[in-house]
Amino acid sequence: MADLTTTPDRFRGKTVIVTGAGSGIGRASALRFAREGARVVAADVVAERLDALVAENAELDLVPVTGDITTEEGVQAVVAAAEGRVDALANVAGIMDGFLPAAEVDDRTWELVFAINVTAVVRLTRAVLPLMIEAGSGAIVNVASEAALRGSAAGVAYTASKHAVAGITKNTAVVYAKHGIRTNAVAPGATITNIEAPMKSQVAAAALGPIMQTTVPTPVEADVLAASITWLASDDATNVNGVVLPSDGGWSAI
Fold first, then answer.
1. pLDDT per residue over 62-79, tens digit each?
2. What range does the domain containing 181 cover?
3. What's the predicted TM-score (pTM) here?
4. 250 torsion bin: left (phi>0), alpha (psi -120 to 50), beta (else)
5. CATH code of residue 137
């Protein structure tokens, strides 16, 4: 882990939902929120990951919810665990697409990537907004990607899905700002996680490989992204709304 200082009690008394909490950026974010005082509803599709998360961090207020957030039932289970209060939502769960370009992407890959990366984000956002509107405050942080900013970081499905996340973020920010709700996104660059990112296309390898080899900064650990996510969700970012914030070591500046 990187040597990052947490802010004690920044989320004391608050309830935060984090998806993809069993591994990678989601796990790091759930832990950072909890270490800063939050009650964290930690959602993931793999029960064993959540069991390990809770067992290894018994001193923290972590509420594990195993379920498929691509379904309405899964979303409702996550929101129910929040017990009527959601101060922040971090939509972190996501999958890659094998770098498949438009001529090669299959329907199953396209649909699965959009189900997890886009539809689940909208469903969870839709589910928590009434609670936030009633409270008159709230923060939503979506995980976009470098692929939301350029066309050379992934395949067509993942790239399109993360561009969609950027659009969802901006529209939600504009529409619900008057209710005291801020919606932002973080765009990670190269990050050390267990997300599978094989290059399944020779065409993509030939086109994107040389670009990525010369532009991608050294990958960072997931807790570096967790620092960006928790900042956007905190009152420290009170005047930040509708932003897609690159947290990419300068990749987006190239």
1. 999 999 999 999 999 999
2. 15-248
3. 0.95
4. left
5. 3.40.50.720
